[in-house]
Amino acid sequence: MSSTSGVATGEYAQGEPPLDPGRRKSLHDGSGRRAALLIGPTILLLAIVILYPIVTAVSQSFTQDAGLDPSTGMFVEGGFAGIANYRLWLLQDCGGGAFSCPPGTLGSQFWTATGVTFLFTVVAVTLETVLGLIFALVMHRKFKGRAILRASVLVPWAIPTAVTAKLWYFIFAYDGIANRVLGTEILWTGDGWAPKAAIIIADTWKTAPFMALLILAGLQVIDEGVYEAAKMDGAGAWKRFVFITLPLVRPALMVAVLFRTLDTLRMYDLPKILTGGAGDTSTLSMLVVDQVRSGFHAASALSTITFLIVFLVAFIFIKFLGANVTEQRAPKARKAA
Amino acid sequence: MATASSTATRSGKNYTSSGVEIVQRRRPLATTLTYVGVVLICLWGLLPFYWMIVTSFRDVGYTFDSTPWPTHVTLDNYATAFSTERGNHFGRALLNSLVIGAATTAVGIVVGVFAAYALARLQFKGKFYVLGIILGASMFPGVALVTPLFQLFTDIGWLNTYQALIIPNISFVLPLTVYTLTAFFTEMPWELEESARMDGCTPGQAFVKVILPLAAPGIFTTAILAFTAAWNEFLLASQLGGDRVQPVTVAIASFTGAQPHQEPYTAVMAAGTIVTVPLIVMVLVFQRRIVSGLTAGGVKS
Fold it and tell me: What is the DSSP letter of A82?
C-alpha cells in the first residue's frame, strides 16, 4: 500500500527535494507546530481529567482528614499525615500499630480485596484467553453465515456491564435458571466460592467474545502460505497450531491479554451489582468507593495503591512479556481497511 | 514473510510421517467440528440475552418459570419499568444517557480527529510519547478519579449536573477515539490530499473537502464505539451524579420493587432489554464496521 509508505516517510518525502537541509529542517519545525496545535486539545483535556486528579489524589493521600483527633479529642484541620494512610491499608494500622484494624472495618479488608481482585484477574483472563482463542480459531475457518456468528459474538460486548450484572444476578438467583439447570440450590450471592464463581462466569461470558475478535484479527494477518508449506512438509493440525499459529498470533494475543488484565484489575460494576461484595468479593475499586464515604484522604491513598498496582502490571506486561502496544497497531490497522 | 515460512518449513520437517494423509482424512470431521463450534459460540452469545428478553415478557407471578419461551406473556413489566411510582426514573435516565452519550461522543470525536490526524499524518518529535500518554490514559483506573473529582465537583457545585458526568467520560472516550481514528487515518489515501494541495487548497480546505468525506466511515465507526463506552459508564455516574442526571446504568442497578427487599426482576429485565436492544440493532447493522473499529483501536471494551 502506497499510503502506508507515504505516512511512514512523512511530509518532506513527498514533493520536497531533500537536498537543502535548512529548508528541510524548517518544514519539520512547521510540522511540529501544527502537530502541537492539533494534539494540544487532547493533551489539555487529558491533563484536566486525568493528570489533575492524580496529582490531587497523591498529594491528598499524604495528608489527614479534618476531624477529631482521637488522641487529644480536639478538632484538627487535616495537615501532613506522612504515610499513615498507606499504613492503614498496607499494614492494616488503624492507629494502634500493625494489624490493629478490627475485623469488619474497611482497613482490615485491604488484603482480602487485593487477593480477590488478583484471583478474578488471573482466573477470568485465563478462561477468557483460552475460550477466546478457541472461538477465534472456529471463526477463522471458512463457512457460511459468518455474519450471524460475528453479530452474536458482539451481543455480550454491546450489553452494558450494569445490565450484564443484573442479568446474571437474575440467572444466579436462588430460584433462578442456573440452579434449575444444574439441579442445585446454591446461594450464588452468599458466601464461599459461589459468589466468586458467579462473577468470574459473568465476566468471562461478557468478554471472551471480545478477546476472540482481537485474536481473530491477529489470525487474519498470518500468511496462508506458511500453513501450506507446513502441510506440504507433513505437519499435522496440532503441530501447525503449536509451531505456527501460536507464535505468530502471540503479539495480538499479548495485547488482548494486557487490555483484559488491566480491565479486570479495576473491575467495579460487575461485582458491585452482582454480589455487592458479599462473600469477600469486594474488589480494590469497590473498597475505594466504600472508603470515600468515611474519609477522602484514606480513599486517595487506596486509589493511589490501586493505580500503582495497575501501572506495575502494565509495566511488567510491556517490559517483560513482550506486549508491544504501539507497534501492534500496524498489522491490525491493515486488517481494518 | 520469507523468514517466517522458512522457519515453519524447518519445524515442519522434524515431524514428518504420514501427516499429509491424516490431514486429508480428517477434513469432514473438521467441518463438523467447525459447525458444532459455530452453534456453541452463537448459543454462548445469545442464550443469556434471550433469557433476559423471555423474562421481560413474563408475568411477575411466573418470574422463575423455566420454560424456554415466555409463559403468561405480558407487557406490564415494560410499563413498570417506566413507572415513576416507586421513585424510579427510568424514562428520564434514558434521556440522560442519550444526552451524556451524545455530548461525550461529540467532544471525543472532534478533539480526537485533530489528534489522530496529527498522529497519522505528521512527523514530529515526541510522537512516541504522545501515543504513550494517550495509551496510558486508557489504562488508568477510573476509581482513582472518584475522590478528587467528587471533592472538586462539590467545591464548585457541580454534583448532580450533566457536565460532572460528561467531562470524566471524555477521559475514557478520548484515548479510544484517538487510537481508533489514528488506525483508520493511517490507511487513508493521503495522495488525494497532496493533489488537492497542488490544486490550490489550503491544508485546512484539503482536509475538510477531501479527507473528511473519505474518513466519514471510520469516524462514524469510532463514534459508535465512543457512544457505547459512554452509555456503559457506571462507576463515576453512580458517585458524581444524582437523581436528576442519573444515567440508565445507575437507574437499572438501583431499581426498587413494590415492597422493600423485593427484587423487581421482570421489570429490571424489561429495562435491560430496552437499554440493550438499540445497541444490538446497531451491532447487527454495522457489525463489520464495529469489528474493524474494535480491532483497529484494540482499546478496552
Answer: T
Question: Cell triple for residue B266?
Answer: 421482570
Predicted local confidence at residue A234, as pLDDT: 84
- Contact predicate A160/B276, CB 8 Å: yes
pTM of the predicted model, to two decimals? 0.84
- CA separation for the pair A192, A210 (Å, rounded): 29
CA nearest B297: which of A329, A39, A216, A263?
Answer: A329
CB contacts under 8 A, A 122-181 vs B, are 134-135, 138-139, 141, 143, 145, 147-163, 165-168, 170-171, 173, 175-177, 180-181
B240-259 residue pLDDT tens? 988 889 999 999 988 876 66
Is the confidence metric ipTM above 0.90 for this complex? no
Residues B51-103 pLDDT 10s:
999 999 988 888 888 788 888 888 888 988 888 877 788 999 999 999 999 99
Distance from CA of B69 to the nearest CA of A (A): 13
Task: Dig out the grid coordinates for A41 from the structure.
Answer: 486539545
Task: Report the residue from B11, B142, B290 with minimal CB separation from A243.
Answer: B11
Answer whether B137 touches A (CB < 8 Å): yes
A323 touches chain B (CB under 8 A): no
Q: Which three cell numbers stand for residue A263?
A: 480491565
Q: Which stretch, A5-19, A58-72, B21-35, has highest mean pLDDT?
A: A58-72
Residue A287 is which amino acid? L
Q: Using an 8 Å CB-CB cutoff, list chain B residues near A267.
A: none
**Best mutation site among B147, B170, B250 for testing chain A: the one with the most A CBs within 10 Å?**
B147
